[in-house]
Amino acid sequence: MPPQRRLKPQSLEDISLQAYISLLKNETELLFHLRAYAPKSILVNRVSPDILYRRLETQFTSGCYGILQEIVRQRIVEHMVKNFHVFMNDCVSATKSSKTYQILSEQSTNNDFVQPRPPNSGDDAVSGSPGRYNMTNLRFLPIFQQLMLILNDDVKALDFSKNKDLVDMEEATEICRVLWKIIGERCKSLEKLILTKDLSYSSTLNSVIVNGSKLTHLTLKRNVPNNIFLNLIGQNCPKLQGIELDVAGSEIINDFGIVCLLFADPEQIFLKCWNRDKTVGSQVRRNLRVFPQPFYDRQIPDQQEPYTRNSKSGSGNYLYLKKTFHEALRSGEGGDWERLPIATSIKKFRLENTKVKGDGASVVLESCPNIYSLGYLVFAAAGINASYQLQFTD
Questions:
Q1: Rounded to the nearest 5 degrees, what angle is found at the Cα of 153, between the Cα atoms of 148 and 156?
Q2: Is 355 within 8 Å of 377 (Cβ atoms)?
Q3: 3-state SS of 273-313?
Q4: What pLDDT, on a 0 to 100 scale, did the predictor assign at position 210?
């Protein structure tokens, strides 16, 4: 029997989406070049790119209403996420070799010279060559213009794990800085956000969390800058209920991070448990005021390990406690701790490959009545033992 060749043609839906995305790309590229050359042109100096952008946005939403528009937007977003590695490479190439982008950068630099920005303006911070990674210039790139047209409150899910070709790159921080800002501004009804370790944290990711009141599924991987960031999640994401809060691989997170996530005033709890003298060292005078914030993210030594083992690196490398957070929670010292709503809603909390140990696991088990999984956390048994006084035998 002769060999058979089986073809699986693309669906009509996929063909239509690709055609529309290609058309949208052409239109945003036209606007990109128009913004650079219109101010210097005699023929098109009266053409406003902003008016054309608004017209394009109106045409995108016309003829498609209600749930149909929501489905179409979500499918376009999924297609763009799957190809986001291509868009990232296009962005890097544009910032390095595009003549249009160089003109926009020069215009931005001239405007800054005439009207200087206030110092330490985070959104428009420049990295590398002057104006190259200016926030405003990056937003004018075609990919970000497309995202600003497509993303809105109808988009419920952003799952970057579906893109298997994402790789870590030097410019990822700058690209993600713009990406998180756009998502934070446009997607205020987001229910599912899954990031990968190849994407980079930026302070603009905070805006996504602040507007994440409807989030039910959040996967951050290594995009957690410090333990206090978890308090931002606890304060603003009360509906993380029943799916998964995944911070696996975030090695900065220690037992104090659990307190930050679940309680309204983690700083006060920290002060009740913190062993200041042992952490700071005897060389610091007792009457010298020492702020606790620099010590939040230090590794907490295991209670079972002898002090001599940890003292080889110097006491300043560790965070020492007078009592464990779980002991303070059980004793109720200083009144009842105010738990955040996430403590009762969270059901799955993946903590493997973090610095969380038995104390943190005990706090989760004591405070979260609906929790059923801590992932592959090896200290889960120690937490169960501390919370329920169970004895484990070989």
A1: 105
A2: no
A3: HECHHHHHCCCCCCCCCCCCHHHCCCECCCCCCCHHHHHHH
A4: 94
Other residues' Cβ atoms within 10 Å of the Cβ of residue 264: 13
Q: Is the dihedral of CA 160, 133, 225, 315 positive or negative?
A: positive
**How far apart, in Å, do the first and last CA atoms of the chain sit?**
62
pLDDT band at 261 (very low <50, low <70, confident <90, very high): very high
Three-state DSSP state, 219: strand
- For 181, the token pair is 């800002």
CA distance 368 to 346: 7
User: What are 293-305's pLDDT values in tens digits?
Assistant: 778 888 888 765 5
Angle (deg, nearest 10), helices 66-82 and 84-97? 70
Measure the CA angle with vertex 126, ends 125 and 132; round to 5°.
135
DSSP assignment of 21-84 equals: HHHHHHHHHHHHHHHHHGGG-SSSTT--HHHHHHHHHHHHHTT--HHHHHHHHHHHHHHHHHTH
Which pLDDT score is estimated for 207? 95
Amino acid in position 189: S
Q: Which residue has the tokens 């497509």?
A: 150
Range name among 114-128, 129-143, 254-268, 334-348 with the lowest pLDDT average = 114-128
> Contact, 56 vs 148, CB < 8 A?
no
Which tens digit of pLDDT belongs to each residue from 103-130?
Answer: 888 887 776 544 444 444 444 443 434 4
Q: Residue ranges of the domains in the chain?
A: 14-110+125-189, 258-388
Query: 55-79 burial string, b = 16+ CB within 10 Å, else e?
Result: ebeeebeeeeeeeebbebbbebbee
Judge whether residue 30 has pLDDT over 90.
yes
Confidence tier at 313 by pLDDT (50, 70, 90): very low
